[in-house]
Amino acid sequence: MKYIEQLLKGNKPVNLWLYLPFPLFFVGLMFLNWIGTKMLHQSTSEIIRANIELYGKNINFLMTVGPMIFMLLMLLAWVLGVQKQSFISLTTSRSKIDFKRIGVSFGIWSLCIIAMFIFQYISNPGNFEFNLKFFPFLGFLVIAIILIPLQVAFEEYFLRGYLMQAIGLASKSRFVALIITSLLFGLLHLANPEVEKLGYSIMIYYIGAGFLLGIMTLMDEGIELALGFHAANNLIGALLVTSNWTAFQTNSIFLDLTPVEEGSSAADLLIQVGILFPLLLLLYSRIYKWNDWKSRLFGKVLTPKP
């Protein structure tokens, strides 16, 4: 049985109305948070800067990712307790979760991140400052190793799991599920300070990453590869290099001092999304012997006849 069709496992009836409350609750919270920010007449960057001055970078990081941990617990309680869906069927079409897939995906993208950083550092060493402070970094390392995988898990289980399965079943289209969840992934990052500093061109990356993760999920019939990629992207990135204007401002090893106007241009983003991401998908397709791309990405979701 394919990943989206996991909802039909055991020929149990699926009440699609039960898939509305949690997304409405989450979107409502995001909207209230946005309204609150507007009422304070402060940018996201200013709020983050004020929190860092008051509490320090590690506590600010806890405040940033903490709500996502709460939302993960809420989501799992709803899915497992109310909708009675198994955790494995929310994760994969396989009989058990493939942790090796998570590790392989994490390792491959971690190497890519480190390689890209080395290239940037060699090209423009003056744009980076060695920022390692042992004890603050050690504290952040412990926090990050625990919390970032949980933050990533919420985004993946909510978008590539919960919503992709529900939208796929409701629309009977794998492609509709891919389109909607990928666009939502981008929109969830709309309030990030990166958008404020770099402009809406950064959405090329966020939406492109959403499509990458969605294609991984549909082609591999599970979210293990997406979990590994996303965890590497957030964890290794936060530990290795951050700046004073991104969503994650952490006690990282390096500080990126690149002037904002010299940051990621639309062309740079298109190269990453249009070249690097497809190459990554090609590599995964060779490793896991993906085939029948048309059916897996554009095919109908098969539901039993009444």
Automatic annotation (TrEMBL):
Keywords: Membrane, Transmembrane, Transmembrane helix. One of its GO terms (molecular function) is endopeptidase activity. It comes from the Bacteria. Residues 140-236 form the CAAX prenyl protease 2/Lysostaphin resistance protein A-like domain. The chain crosses the membrane at residues 16-35, 59-81, 102-122, 134-154, 175-192, 198-219, 231-249, 269-288. GO terms for biological process: CAAX-box protein maturation. This is CAAX prenyl protease 2/Lysostaphin resistance protein A-like domain-containing protein.
